[in-house]
Amino acid sequence: MPAPSRIDQIAERVERLLVRHEEVQRTNALLQDQVDALTRERDTLKSRLAAARTRLDALLDHLPADPGQDAP
Asked: What is the model's pLDDT at position 3?
């Protein structure tokens, strides 16, 4: 069996690079999906935190300023 020509070697290497490129593109797409999901989750949690803070502030506003104020 004759040794592969330089052109054949280059063609084989290009084919491997193309396969690797496709793999990297798929991996990148999956990672981007994860980033998008985590960004949505973060935004939801920030919104819930803001709502909880608002509720806590409202509750604190209903507390008397002086602890002895309610005493008879």
From this structure: 82
Decide: 4 and 12 in contact? Cβ < 8 Å.
yes
Tokens of 68: 């002895």
Q: What is the pTM of this model?
A: 0.68
- pLDDT tens readout for residues 4-43: 899 999 999 999 999 999 999 999 999 999 999 999 999 9
Give the contacts of 64 (CB within 8 A, at least 6 positions apart): 70
3-state secondary structure 26-62: HHHHHHHHHHHHHHHHHHHHHHHHHHHHHHHHHHHHH
From residue 7, alpha-carbon distances to 3, 11, 14, 32, 61 in Å are: 11, 6, 10, 37, 79
If you count DSSP H runs as helices and E runs as strands, how many of each does the chain have, helices first? 1, 0
